[in-house]
Amino acid sequence: MIVMDLDGTLLTSQRTISPYTKNVLIELQKNNISIILATGRIYDKAKDIGKQLEFFRYPQSGYICVNGLRLYDNKGQLLYQKPGLSYKDVQILSKYVVKYHASMRLVFENHVYIFDKNNPIQLPNYFKNTIRINNIDDIPLDVHDQLLKIVIMQSSDKIDKLMNVLKDLSYEICKVENDSIEITPLNVNKGNGLIKMSQLKHIDCENVIAFGNGENDISMLKAAGRSIAMGNAFDNVKQISDDVCLDHDSNGIGIYLSSLMPKKDVMN
User: Fold this and answer.
1) CA–CA dist 136, 26 (Å, integer)
2) Tens digit of pLDDT for each residue in 1-11?
3) What are the backbone dihedrals phi and psi of residue 266, each rounded to the nearest 5 degrees, phi first?
4) 237-261, pLDDT tens digit by residue?
5) What is the average pLDDT across 72-100?
6) Which of 64, 85, 114, 137 is the most exposed place for a label (fewest CB within 10 A)?
7) 121 vs 99, 115, 152, 240, CA distance in Å?
8) Among residues 211, 246, 251, which one has the least CA distance to residue 228?
9) Whole-angstrom Cα distance, residue 4 to residue 136?
């Protein structure tokens, strides 16, 4: 099994898969290797990547979504899920957002709510179905059971201070970009997601290669038999990994995996 993060790992800076790496991953699936996409995204934001990798042809492949909250098979059927965050969690975290002049992105099943009263942010154009609010009570109570994760955003020069404040709370808290922190329920992480997916696929974790670049990938890299940090990964991700490959804009995953394949299977 080969498990990989999406943004900053499999996907380039333009959020695309390079043709070379795509061909390598398809060739591996033809040889009965499981390819698992492990991401903080919800399934609907990850399925297009699986489609490009022709997952529909390969039942051994699948998805670890929302940092391990939900697992799906190659065609998007739910295999496993854990409870998400609650309205109480929103109340707790929103106080820190206000106090430290940060912004909060609340990811639900069908919408993303942006709470940025004190720190208006410019969202990339790939964010759809977003609703800006000035008060968390503006979110209908009947949708809170659909809350999947929370992302807190702050300027890169201030985010480490905020991380230090949040780290003692009872959540999984990871810095995923220089200006954003992802929060999921305690023990919901990619590492536990990988372990569960390995059990479902009857594959020992020792036979798993994992690729990642952000702090939310660390638990996954530690759980895998072989861990590979991207060339563009955070330093602390590289430090816990077995190896470092080229960056996500240089076919890092494709070239690394090609080096492990029999010569006749290596993509030219």
Assistant:
1) 44
2) 999 999 999 99
3) -70, 135
4) 999 999 999 999 999 999 999 999 8
5) 94
6) 137
7) 17, 10, 11, 33
8) 211
9) 34
